[in-house]
Amino acid sequence: MEKMKKMAAMVLATPRAMMGLVLALGASGLVSIASADTIKPQAQKSSKNGFSIGVEGNIGRAYSFNDPSPTYKPTSNNDMLRSTFIDLGLIGAYQHYFGENQRQGFKISGHIDSGIGSSWREVIEDAALTLSYIPIKFGLDIKYLWDFLEQDGYTLGVHIGVGYAYDMYEDGKWIFKVKGSDIEPVVDASPISLGFIYPVLGLHYYYGHHQFELLWRGGGAIGATSKPTDTDTTGESPLYVTIISNSYATLSYAYRF
């Protein structure tokens, strides 16, 4: 009888022991799954490499001088004609950063601009002589990039580089205005072109794929001049015009793909 009681107790105890083992294993598995869920892979650093397109605006001073002689050279800036120009244009670029931190890289960009303000007015006694052009400006920049601040999705950095510009001044007009007269004779002026190398220096700011730049293009630092061009298309009296390369500030926005 005693043996029968022991065997019954073992039979009853075995399912309980097995149930306890199953519950223990199940709890262990749940803990392991929960632990696996809480361990997430480290997010990879977002790449700043790629192509971008956008727009830019420029503001600066435009200089020129004219004279009947092609060999005339002004002795100072006071002898030149000045005007303020504003250009708008399109830009396209490719940038590439190096290393895991992506703090240093390079950027190649091209731009095409046009705008207002490429006109010069000279007053002589009671008469005013104005030369006006439509500018078409091409440029190519190569810049070294250094990002010194990165935080919460935005980037702040500086860049320095060099560029080449080719400016064309088309559809020129000479406009004569005499005081007290309603007649304003207009004479076509010959086109002028100018190519020069310039330094680039500026700041850039990124927020995600949005990129802003504030930079200085130093055309006036080189001081390149166009070839003196006889702009009088009538052939009656030669008037040679020279345009001076100029420095200007640029603000741009681009979206990087």
How many angstroms does the end-to-end distance come to?
86 Å
**Tally of helical runs:** 2
User: How much of the polypeptide forms β-strand, as a percent range?
Assistant: over 45%
Tell me the helix content.
Answer: 10-25%
Mean pLDDT: 81
Compact summary:
This protein has helices at 2-38, 219-222, and strands at 50-67, 81-98, 104-116, 119-124, 127-151, 154-178, 186-189, 192-207, 210-218, 229-230, 240-244, 247-256. By secondary structure, the chain is of the alpha+beta class.
How would you describe this structure to a colleague?
- The chain is an alpha+beta fold and 257 residues long.
- 16% of the residues lie in helices and 59% in strands.
- It contains 2 helices and 12 strands.
- An 8-stranded antiparallel barrel has the order 1-2-3-5-6-8-9-12.
- A hairpin with a 7-residue loop joins β6 and β7.
- The longest helix is centred in the N-terminal third of the chain and has 37 residues, at 2-38.
Keywords, separated by commas or semicolons:
2 helices, alpha+beta
SSE inventory with pairings:
Layout: H1 2-38, E1 50-67, E2 81-98, E3 104-116, E4 119-124, E5 127-151, E6 154-178, E7 186-189, E8 192-207, E9 210-218, H2 219-222, E10 229-230, E11 240-244, E12 247-256
Antiparallel strand pairs: 1-2, 1-11, 1-12, 2-3, 3-5, 4-5, 5-6, 6-7, 6-8, 8-9, 9-12, 10-11
